[in-house]
Amino acid sequence: MRIVIQRVSEAKVEVEGRITGHIGRGYLILLGVGKDDDKKVADRYIDKILKLRIFADENGKTNLSLKDVQGEVLVVSQFTLYADCRKGNRPDFINAGSAQKAEELYQYFLKQIKEKLGKVESGEFGAEMKVSLVNDGPFTIILNEDLVQ
């Protein structure tokens, strides 16, 4: 998996002009599923995301987690996180998971993080989406295979 986390004061996703997800303070998570990913990998990412301390405490230190600030999450599937641009000018997505596998893990990810956190919104898998956000900080973190062991 490859995940981009943006700490936001608000974010929303629209599909064909209708809002499918909208949150206040929390994380916008862009989620890419790789061909070798499985539920165990998803569980490690979820654990890491929930334990990340990237919200400021009363002293301005990044010491607080999503749960500490009662934050919300918006998850958007994004296979383009697996773009390989090393050869030529057209990205290759050979390392992205198949659509079926990616949707299964996306749905699993949503279900698990919602059970552990509560307020979780999402885009629509495979849809053309418009994502807007107010990045708080800005504060953006990239999690990939090397970072979540």
Structure description:
With 149 residues, the protein is α/β, with parallel strands linked by helices. A hairpin with a 2-residue loop joins strand 1 and strand 2. It has one domain (2-143): D-tyrosyl-trna(Tyr) Deacylase, Chain: A. The chain is globular, with a radius of gyration of 15 Å. It has two helices and eight strands. Strands 1, 2, 3, 6, 7 and 8 form a six-stranded mixed sheet that branches. A two-stranded antiparallel ribbon has the order 4-5. It has helices at residues 39-51, 99-117; strands at residues 2-15, 18-23, 26-32, 55-56, 62-64, 72-77, 120-122, 129-143. Helix 1 packs parallel to helix 2 (99-117). The longest helix is centred in the last third of the chain and has 19 residues, at 99-117.
Chart the SSEs and their pairings.
Layout (H helix, E strand, L loop, with lengths): L1 E14 L2 E6 L2 E7 L6 H13 L3 E2 L5 E3 L7 E6 L21 H19 L2 E3 L6 E15 L6
Parallel strand pairs: 3-6, 6-7
Antiparallel strand pairs: 1-2, 1-3, 1-8, 4-5
Helix pairs in contact: 1-2
In short:
The chain is α/β, with parallel strands linked by helices. 21% of the residues lie in helices and 38% in strands.
Quaternary assembly: single chain
Structural class: alpha/beta
What does the radius of gyration come to? 15 Å
> How many individual β-strands?
8
Number of domain modules:
1
CATH class bucket: Alpha Beta
Give the SSE string: EEEHEEEHEE
How far do the termini sit from each other? 12 Å
